[in-house]
Write a structure and sequence with these properties.
By secondary structure, the chain is an alpha+beta fold. The protein folds into two domains: about 150 residues, Jelly Rolls, CATH 2.60.120; about 110 residues, no CATH class. It has eight helices and twelve strands. The protein starts with a strand and ends in an 11-residue tail after the last helix.
Amino acid sequence: MYTLYDTRTVHPFDRYEYTRASIASELAPVAIHGRSPGQLLAVMSVEKVGDFAVEVATWAADREVVVRRTERLIRACDPECYRIYLGVTPGVRMEQADHRLEFRARDIGLYDVSRPWTTTHTTGRALLRVIMLTFPRALVPIDRAAIRPLVGTVMPRNLPGRGLVAQFLVGLTEPAGTDDPGLADVLRECAVGLIRQRLGEPSGITPHTRRLLYQACINGIIRRNLGNPALDPDGIAKEANISPRYLRVLHGLIGGWVLRLRGWR
């Protein structure tokens, strides 16, 4: 991932104005409103994967800061995209399409970057961290009228596959997390499948989609641990939150992506 902006690279007195200028260069430009915080940390990292943009934002401030995407900004730059928004940590408030919610840790929401929204970054000791997956609406073969009621809402916690999608998105931010050559296809299955799942369609997070997500997760674990002589299937299964038995099932279904590991039988 490359760093789009990082307030740690500028003097503390300049960080607010630096951030105000930097966020105008985001894929869906926004504007900051309100008084300057006395302390501010704002970091945005981005990675392009095919038609998808994986964006990771880290934020901390001693004053609440409001960020808005307005009609004027949309007219100036509209990439015509949906955005899946994962709150890695709690404390971010979002408003879009008359829906208002405060994200808890691992909450997932769906947004339309062609519609105005307001984000409030709250204060606190802990860093706020979010992961955003942005992709063209044209990639989603579902009528926009069907998706419109979902915009600005959070995916129910009991939605099948939601936790697996959250785990997958977090894995993208790890070192080498976006190096998989087949990742664009996995992202497409993930994004479209999650929306279909929320709509109650049978073609949502299918067994095939689950296998792709687990494969991407496990490949990431392997890449991050290739220099670890203690790496074995049991350790991979534990980090992937699956049983060693299910790991063996996946291995048989998908192919030899763990054959190199010591102790595999």
